[in-house]
Structures are given as structure tokens and as C-alpha cells.
Amino acid sequence: MTQLHTDNTARAVSWRPLCERRDLVADSGVVAWLDEAQVALFHLPSTDQGEQLFALENRDPKSGANVIGRGIVGSLKGELVIASPLYKQHFRLKDGSCLEYPEQRLRAWPVRINGDLVEIAEA
Amino acid sequence: MKPGISSIKSETLIIIGNGMVGHHCVEQLIERGAMAHYDIHVYGEERQRAYDRVHLSEYFGGRDAESLALCQPDLYDTHGVHLHLGVQVLDIDRDNQEIITSAGRQRYDRLVLATGSFPFVPPIPGAEGNSRLVYRTLDDLDAIRDAAVSARRGVVVGGGLLGLEAANALKSLGLEAHVVEFAPRLMPVQLDDQGGAALKARIEALGVGVHLNRATSEIVPGEEYAYRMNFNDGEYLETDLIVFSAGIRPQDALARSASLEVGERGGVIIDDDFRSSDPTIYAIGECASWNGSCFGLVAPGYSMARNLALQLVGAQHECFAGADMSTKLKLLGVDVGSIGDAHAATPGAKSYRYIDEANNSYRRLVVSADNSRVIGAVLVGDNSYYDTLLQYAQNGIKLPADPSSLILPLSDGAPTLGADALPDTATLCSCHNVSKGAVCCAIDAGCTDLGELKAQTKAGTGCGGCAALVKQVFEHELSARGVEVDKSLCEHFAHTRQELYDIVRVNRITRFDELLAKHGRGHIGCDICKPAVGSILASCWNQPITDPTLVPLQDTNDTFMANMQKNGTYSIVPRIAGGEITPDKLITLGAVAKKYDLYTKITGGQRIDLFGAQLHQLPDIWGELIDAGFETGHAYGKSLRTVKSCVGSTWCRYGVQDSVGMAIRLENRYKGLRAPHKIKFGVSGCTRECAEAQSKDIGVIATENGWNLYVSGNGGMRPRHAELFATDLDDATLIRYIDRYLMFYVRTADKLQRTSVWRESIEGGLDYLKEVIIEDSLDLAAELEAQMQLVVDRYECEWANALADPEKLKRFRTFVNDQRGDPDIHFVKERGQPRPARASELQLIPVTQEASS
Fold first, then answer.
1. Fewer CB within a 10 Å sphere, N or C end of chain A?
2. Superfamily of domain A16-118 in the CATH hierarchy
3. Do the chains contact at B568 and A66, CB–CB below 8 Å?
4. What is the rounded distance in angstroms from the CA atom of residue A87 to the CA atom of residue B652?
């Protein structure tokens, strides 16, 4: 499995449905269950690059609590971020890396809207 | 310098006294590298390490001993200074160069006396116990506090600076305070007759009794109070406690028993280099007598400490040449200032006087015989003139053509000597001898932050009297160098919260994206500006925070209308207005907590907090609570939290008004008001103050005639006593003032600023607030009341609103695609209730299935 991380683009991605589009909340987060994982979904209908959707691991590495999907979406120095609701550290939506603490990192999934469905890929 | 011996501590230096001056000497010695040469021992008689005696009265205003301490607990240890606290030095054996304590003998090579002074208590028959208290140390203050517990009235003997401080302390303990002074006026040393009269009028207006020309002949048991003070003119005054503050005397007992020379009026005689009659012994601070005078202020003491330290490390020091005894302070909230030759004793001196009997303000300017320089001044009622006058006096700045302009009121406030008019040599902070030039040097070396400047130069960290001037010079010099202070909210808004508030109101903006597009940058915002703007929109328009355009702005607590705890679960606090709850409602709370297995705790605000609910459980729980008649308690919001009350006149034999009724009325009026930070109220039914209203943002205390209103108190990390704002109000006026006060706070405070910090940041202080709120000086009262009424009229229980809207309830799902709860939340039982499991306990929890490999 881990080998898949090395090169996403060269490989055909297999998408699977996760939840419905109407489950999303604009400019905020919701959480979906994916096998044994918790996925926080952030839907930004109108950014300067158009509509965007991101999927990050819901577990906050600092507190160990599953709360990332309940943070505030924002942009800092041009990068889209989510602020953890407990200790307020920021994670980049694009890859789950942390602005303040490089050792903290959230797993990120490729995710897309396909008609009425939200689809996720194993990455 | 002797290279090569720096690591050998060749001499023992003993400092007796760990007060402000003794401590300053140690700090200066450490800073100048004296630890390489001296083995330093410090003996302090008190239990506490050195503390800020200048601000002693704040001990009753909520500060504790630790916050008054002058240094971190480990400062002495870190630098290898041996600190002996609670140890009294009994004698000095000069022949053997040893001091004698109860613990034994300790040799010294050099000895510094910094023993300070002690309060003088005139020998009056009958003065003992609670009729012979003094006001000097923390222990003294504890004794006064103990005595005040069962007291109604307190008397201070002595109407000088310290006596008035002590009267303030008694007042802040809730006692009826009186001052008895032997002289014909208050503060006879610093003030002239008219100044004393203005001060007396102001203090009497505050409810403090002032009795002049009174000498106490004896103290006997009283009839209505514990004691009766008989005066030598036949009059008497009864009281429950007496604090003597009739002056201080140098603490020179050790010097006397060691046969050092002492002055006629006491004090260890020192030369210009602080040396006593024994060349190995020095004296500094209030215990030292130089040229026949002792100096009872901290600034000359610090100057002595600094220059002695320089001398002891062999560096160049300045000889002592007397001290400027100018002083400015706030006594019982009244500005009093005295500069130089306040009594115009200099031959040929001329005076200009400004007397305002309507407001009991008084200013006197004393100038030299040739009308060229300021040599003294007296100020009562307004110290905004002080800094400028002091600079004129200290730096010999030539008087303007019309010297009276320096003390006459101007329509736009007091004339200030612009920061650029001061010469570089001008002393800004006399406690730490910081000149304007030193501030400029620090700025040129890269300092752009006021806090940093204070840390580097110590300017403004002694008595604090120069803080405003230091700030003014600092900001002036910064802007002269082209540095601009950035007050932007965040990278998306180049405005302060106050500016954004005005923009939102004036332009009637109701959405974040509109505000961002017209007045900000970018498309998204961030976790700083979103909640701040969310709060502003709620304060202005009070729309439900769960509306789709508002919900992305809220912190998680506001989003889900509950308080997130460390494991991601929430706590729930229904409103229990005034702390009054029916048995049926109490049973409902218990039943709900039991059904959902919630940890239950009584809060400090007379409510009940239910912990441990998962996101998806919140709507069910709230459905049951609302069915039982509860509504949201806003414990999650920056908004009105609780109105704490005592049972008042309904039940209590001491109560004089219905405090519960008023508390419920206030809570129901202001619930739902969103503000820069949380707001707490208290309503007490009598002066016993069981609801602790004086530690709240808004405190209401019943009187025989109505209500006294207190404002801007705080508990928590930085406690602050609320200040008395208005007295004997009827219900309608009380509510009107609170409307205006809260809306003015909402309008002008910074983000996340409690009312206490906001109040301290307001220029003009409490007086200014009274002008705005009570006298309506800004012609704003009607508008503020109308704004509050809009918020009140639009109140709606947020939980009831959300429960009625299936779209809003969709947010309350732990997983949008699965019914289960969060499998990682685990509880264990403790004292019969659930609590979050600790990481170390997780492995003990039985799992039905091994994690798949």
C-alpha cells in the first residue's frame, strides 16, 4: 500500500463514493467515515481558483481528538488552511502539512465532486 | 580590574533588608557582574521576598503577594545570591566584622544597611490590637483585613500620602473610612492650604470623613462601635479599627546598637558615597540620613542602590547630591501632584494659581524670582499637567511668555510639552534613571515594541508614574524614524476591530463576504478575522449565528452551540437565570444527564454543566431540555454568561432589595448580547455582597434607596475589583446605564478584550466613562440604548431556532455518511461519574476485536 504514495499522477486513480454533495457545508467542514478512518471534508464553493474540495484526516495530532473537521477554514499568506479548534494550529488543505509544527502532519486524500456524489480515492 | 581572579569570590557582602531598595541593589550588583567578586548574602525580616510597596494598596484590590513580588522566585538562586528570608539580624559586631542572627554569626567584608523605615505610632493611651494597626507590610495588610471582617467603620490617623492610601484600603474593604489629621490640612508636606482644601472636598465627596486639627488624647471602649477616640478639643469619634499612618521613621535600630552615627531625626548618617561612620558599612534608602534628611520615596532609594552597586564593583558612580521629592499619585482616585518648591519657600518666588471651586480642582505654579523657570507646583484634581511641569522644572526649560498657560485649562486638554521639545538629557524615568537619549538609543538599536523597551531600559517599571510619558516619547521617536505601528486585525483586514465595527454599522453590512470584498483582502478570511467579524455582526444585527452565511465564521463552540472539551466532546449549559431553578427543572437536568450518561458539575455562575456529549447527541439532548422549558445559556459564546445573585430581601434578614428578581430581569434582558468577550454580572441584595458582584463586569449592589452600579470587575487570572460607577439608582436608570455601558463597550473594545482591560485602556479612565454614560457627553446615549433595544427585541433561543430547521440540524452529525458515534471517545468512571479516559488508561479498556493488521 505505501508504495502508492510515491507517484499518484502516473497511476490510474480509482474513485469510490464517500457521501452526497448535499452533505457538504459551504466554507466549512463535515466528517465522513471511511473504513476505519475519519475524513474531514472542506468545501469552498468560490475561491479564486473556483470551487474546491479537500479531504484531510480528522484526528488532531496534538490533542489526539477527532476534531479537525470542526475547525475554521481560512487562508494565510495565500495558502488555504484549517485551524484546529482545540489548540489553533493550522494545517494546509492541499497536503495536510502544519504551518507551525513541521512534525505534525495530517493524511490527505484526493477527493472530487461527481454529480450529486463526493468521491474519494485511496492515495 | 584584576584579571585572573574573577572566579574566586574574594569578599563577602551582606545586605540587610530585602525591600524595594535592597532588592534593587542586588539586581544592580548582578547586572554589573558583582557575583564574580562577592559572595552575597541578603537578610530579609519579612517572610516574602522583595515586593512592590508603592502599589501595596492593590493588595486589597485583588493583587496577591506573588503578583506584587519584584522578581521571579528563582532570580537570587540562579545567580548564586544567598537569600535569608524571615531572618532578623539581631546585632552587628563591628570589631569582628560579623552580623548576629538567631541562626548564628556571619562574617562580612562589606555590609549594606537597607532596612527602610517603620511606621511611627504616637504614644496614645488605649492604643492596642485593632486600635493600633499600621500600614507598611503585607503582614500589616493581612492584619487590617482580619480586623475589617467584623468592622463597619475604620479610622486612619494621619492625613499624609500614606494615610490617604490606607483610607483607600479601608474603603476598598467595604468600611466607612475616616481620616484624622493633626495639621490644619491634608498632605501638609506636599500641598498648600488651597490644595489641601480642594483635596479634602474631593475626598469627602467620596464618602470619606476628614477631621483636621485633631489630636487624639486617648482611646477607650466605644458605645456604638468598638472604640472611641477622644480628641483633645473634647470631640470624639467611634470606630471598629484604627490604622496609624502618622509618618515613618528610619529603621536605624541596628546602627544605633552598633554605635554608628545617626542623624538628629534618625537615620544612619552617610556621606556622598553612602558610607556610614564605619567605612565597611554603607546605608541606602529610607534608613539613610544624608545632609540631615531622609528620603521616603523610591526614586532616590533606587538612585542610591544603583550608585552603590557601581561603586562596589569599582565602576564609576555618581556621588549622591540629594533628590527631587516631586511626586504624583492617585489617592482615593483623586489626582495629586507636588513638584519641587511647592510652598514657594525660595526667596523671591512667585506663584500662579488656578482655583476651580465647582470641581474642586486646584493648580499652583511656582516660578523663580526672575520669572524664567518653574521651581515648584501643586496639582489637585488633574495630573495631566504634571509631566510637562516636571520637565520644565527638572530641565530648566525657559518659561513661555505667559507662564499661567501651563496651568490654565485648555479646551483641548492640558498643554503638553511635545516629546520633541525635550532635550536628550531629560530624565523620563527617575526610578531607573532613564533619559530620553537612552530611549532613542534603544530604538536605534532596533527596539520597536514598548514592552521590549521597558524590559531593556526598565523605564516605567519602578513607580510607574512616567509610563504615559515614556510611551509618548517612544511613539514619537518611532514615528520620527518612519516606523508605523501596525494595528491591523489580520492579513485580511487593515482595520482595528473598532474600525470594522463602525464600517459594519454605518454601511449596514450583514455578511462577511460583503465586508471582505469591500473593505478587506482575499476571498476567504482566517480564524482571526472570521470570529471577530461574526461577533461584530451579531452585536449589530443579532441574526441567528447558525444562518448559512454566518456559520462558517463561528468558532466550533458557537457553531455547535456547546463547549468543546479536550477529547472533542461537548459540554452543555442551559440558562438558569439568576441561579433560580424549579425542582421540576432540576429533575429534568438530572434525568437528561442520567439518560445520556453526562458528567455533571455545578459552575461558578450558579448553573449546571453537563459534560461528555457527542456532536450527534446535542440535538436530542436540547430537544428534551427545550421541551422542559430551558433555553440556551450561551456558555459557548463571547456574550452574556450569567447573572449571579444572592436571595436578597425575599429571604435574607439583611437584604434590602429583591436581588434575585433584578438578576433575572437583567439576565433576560442581556442574554444573547454578543460582545468582544464574555460578560458576567452579579447582583447582591445588600452590602454583604454574597453574590460577589464586585468581581464581575457588571456588579449591582442593593442599597436602602435603590442600586449601586459597579463596572469592569474581573475574577479569573487577573482579578480586578469593579469600580463604583453610580449610586442609589432606580430600576429604570440602572438598566439605562447598563444598556449604554455595554453597548459602548461593544462598540469601542478591541477583540477578545474583557471590560476590565478595556476600562484600563480608556484614556480619561472612569471619569471619562461617567461623562459618556451618565452625562451623555458624546450625545450618544439614545443611540446606544436603541442599539441595545434592537438586540433585545431580536433575541431568540439559538437552540430552539436550530431545532426547528432540519437543514441546520444536518451539521450535528458525527459522520455525514454513518450513524455511529466517534469510536475513539472513551470514558472511565470516577466518583460515580464518567470522565475522559487518559491515554495510559486506554489499553485497559476491553476491545472486542483486534485491530486488523
1. N
2. Rieske [2Fe-2S] iron-sulphur domain (2.102.10.10)
3. yes
4. 45
